[in-house]
């Protein structure tokens, strides 16, 4: 398994997002030993879509990052698209959910869930 690195310009989880991730894990009885799987896949109205989920352990080729107390697993194909990203959580009048601030995105769709690089 890859070494755990502390996020500094890599993958950044905001305080609000970290709190929500831990809440989701608790409510769904996901063990604290699991990590947040973050990646991208082809699709969406702008070319790529973000993927979030939970995995029991990292794959051998994953980069493992600790950001704000959240262990994040990123596959090597997604990593270039996610470097410098900030995962945040919004809970307001316009809706609630995770948001992505991606410095690598040259264009994003209106919903913010897909992008092109």
Q: Count up the helices.
A: 2
Mean pLDDT: 82
Question: Strand share of the residues?
Answer: 35-45%
Name the CATH homologous superfamily.
HesB-like domain
- Summarize the amount of helix as a percent range: 10-25%
> How would a crystallographer describe the biggest sheet?
7 strands, mixed
What coarse outline follows from CA principal-axis ratios?
A: globular
Separation of the first and last Cα atoms: 29 Å
User: How many structurally independent domains?
Assistant: 1
Class derived from helix and strand content: mainly beta
CATH class category label: Mainly Beta
Order of helices and strands: EEHEEEEHEEEE
Query: Can you tell me the CATH architecture?
Result: Sandwich
**In terms of per-residue confidence, which ranges show pLDDT below 50 for 5 or more consecutive residues?**
1-8, 109-117
Instruction: Let me know the number of strands.
Output: 10
Q: What is the CA-atom radius of gyration, in angstroms?
A: 14 Å
**CATH topology, what is it called?**
Hypothetical Protein Aq_1857, Chain: A
Strand arrangement, largest sheet? 1-5-6-3-4-10-9
């Amino acid at each position: 398994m890859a070494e755990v690195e502390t996020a500094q310009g890599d993958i950044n989880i905001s305080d609000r997002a970290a709190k929500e991730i831990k809440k989701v894990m608790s409510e769904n009885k996901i063990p604290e030993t699991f990590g947040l799987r973050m990646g991208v896949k082809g699709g969406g109205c702008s070319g790529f879509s973000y993927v979030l989920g939970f995995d029991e352990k990292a794959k051998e080729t994953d980069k493992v990052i600790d950001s704000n107390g959240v262990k994040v697993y990123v596959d090597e194909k997604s990593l270039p698209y996610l470097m410098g990203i900030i995962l945040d959580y919004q809970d307001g009048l316009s809706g609630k959910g995770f948001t992505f601030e991606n410095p690598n995105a040259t264009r994003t769709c209106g919903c913010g869930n897909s992008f092109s690089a």
